[in-house]
Amino acid sequence: MSNNKAAGVGTRLAHGGRNKTMQFGAVNPPVVRASTILFDSYDAFVNRRSRDRRKGEFMYGRSGLPGSVALEGLMAELEGAADCISVESGAAAVVAPVLALINSGDHVLVADTVYEPTRNFFTVYAKRLGIDAEFYDPLIGARIEELCRPNTRGIFLESPGSLTFEVQDVPAIVAVAQARDIYTFIDNTWASPLGLQAIKLGVDVSIHAGTKHVVGHSDAMLGLVCSNARTEKAIRAGVLALGHNAGTEEIFLGLRGIRTMEVRLKQASASALEVAKWLTGRPEVARVLYPPLPQDPGHSLWKRDFTGACGLFGVVLAKPYPAAAVAAMMNGYDYFGIGASWGGYESLVIPTFPERLRSAVPWTAPGPTVRYNIGLEDPADLIADLAAGFDRLNAAGG
Ligand SMILES: Cc1ncc(COP(=O)(O)O)c(C=O)c1O
């Protein structure tokens, strides 16, 4: 489409990234299986770097094909980004831009609530390369300035945080970073570009595990890295040099998924709010960790900065129920599958252990924590399933 930015999100999701020439009139771009692209001549090959994939001028499988051009263009437009590059997983989307922009000897501030493999990357692999990662209280806001050193080169955010869902003051942190020429990265998977336009808020790099909301059907792995004008070149070059590449089928599934992302997220968020409200009235529950709930400590920041949510939240149980009781509750669910990841159409549950993952701010809670992903099932069925689960919890050790 003509990139009509005034059009609504649903319209942009339906029409964005479509290109008549590359699609031969079909609604969706073809799944092109290609490594080698053949050139007409010696000169065409030698000058291949002047080709523009956005005009259908391709060069090699890893540097873009019709599907990736469509998906990346649409994501960039939704984020207000200069560019977006697709990679093979959300984990790759976290690591690649950091390696593209941060050097040995640099100091990086990392939110204490980042996704566990992100934490692991910084504490083990980045450290090996001479990158010094320091974890900070996600609620630090503008006080992050006190942690900045002359060699601080990056600040990594994730909002809401993994497992415990703290909302960060993104504009306050961005203001400090911009004044000191520090790169900001955010894992923006929970909100998607529909819920938080992080690049528009001044973040340099907005990272999405496309595996979740973009793909939306639990059937493919995908990562998407959105960058602004000052980082786009370094990130595209770095991602290519590091050998990342999203598979052509995965890109197709991402493109298929993203067309319905708004309706899925709206429905999942509405159902999640209904379920979360019900959970807050249960005696087995101390707290529901979900920023859209008015009583959530992050609610006012969420209302100020976000335009949407998703169906993922945490629950803190009211007392130290034994693991066997939590297991009995989870094992008997009809609709909540026990499994990692989220963002599909189906509801999921996992036990979580944030107390094992925090180093800047210890996690304390009266009982175990559990994470639910609310899918597209009828909320009344999910509530009945959860109620039966609490009966098992109480019978097994309450
Ligand atoms: C917040 C967050 N970021 C990144 C990832 C990694 O995504 P992937 O599983 O596609 O590598 C996940 C996966 O659960 C996640 O929850």
What does it look like?
The chain is an alpha/beta fold and 398 residues long. The chain folds into two domains: 9-258, 3-Layer(aba) Sandwich (Aspartate Aminotransferase, domain 2); 262-397, Aspartate Aminotransferase, domain 1 (Alpha-Beta Complex), CATH 3.90.1150.10. Helix content is 36%, strand content 15%. It has 14 helices and twelve strands. It has helices at 9-15, 20-23, 42-46, 66-79, 90-101, 116-128, 170-179, 192-195, 232-241, 248-258, 261-280, 299-305, 323-331, 379-397; strands at residues 83-87, 107-111, 132-136, 152-158, 183-187, 205-209, 223-227, 285-289, 312-317, 337-338, 348-352, 369-373. The strands form two sheets. Strands 1-7-6-5-4-2-3 form a seven-stranded mixed β-sheet, sandwiched between helices. Strands 8-9-12-11-10 form a five-stranded mixed β-sheet, covered by helices on one side. β2 (107-111), α6 (116-128) and β3 (132-136) form a beta-alpha-beta unit. α4 (66-79) packs across α10, α11 (261-280) packs across α14 (379-397) and α13 runs antiparallel to α14. The longest helix is centred in the last third of the chain and has 20 residues, at 261-280. The chain is globular, with a radius of gyration of 22 Å. The protein starts with 8 loop residues before the first helix and ends with a helix. 48% of the residues are buried. The chain binds pyridoxal-5'-phosphate. Pyridoxal-5'-phosphate binds at residues 89-91, 94, 115, 162, 187, 189, 209, 211, 221, 223, 341.
